[in-house]
Specification:
- This protein is mostly helical and 83 residues long.
- The chain has one domain.
- The chain is built from three helices and no strands.
- It is globular.
- It starts with 9 loop residues before the first helix and ends with a helix.
């Protein structure tokens, strides 16, 4: 992972969100099973990190928006990618 912004910055927050969205997008190309589960896990982990950082930065609205996105991704995974 090149060009990772410093911890505790808004740029890092944006990077984490972009990584989560890339992992989510990669879910659609992943093979069913462990590869798909790994992409889903990556998306959740990046979003959890982004939510935590948004809280630490005092960006409650961003944290809420990211939390809603996490809920959307979980809903899609459970609905479209059942094992």
């Amino acid at each position: 992972m090149d060009d990772v912004p410093p911890e505790g910055t808004v740029n890092r927050l944006r990077w984490l969100e972009a990584q989560a969205e890339q992992a989510y997008s990669d879910m659609y190309e992943a093979q069913a099973g462990s590869e798909l589960a790994a992409r889903y896990s990556d998306a959740k982990e990046f979003l959890h990190d982004a939510i935590g950082l948004a809280h630490r930065l005092g960006l409650a609205g961003e944290a809420e928006r990211l939390s809603q996105r996490l809920t959307e991704i979980k809903t899609v995974f459970r609905g479209q990618f059942s094992f």
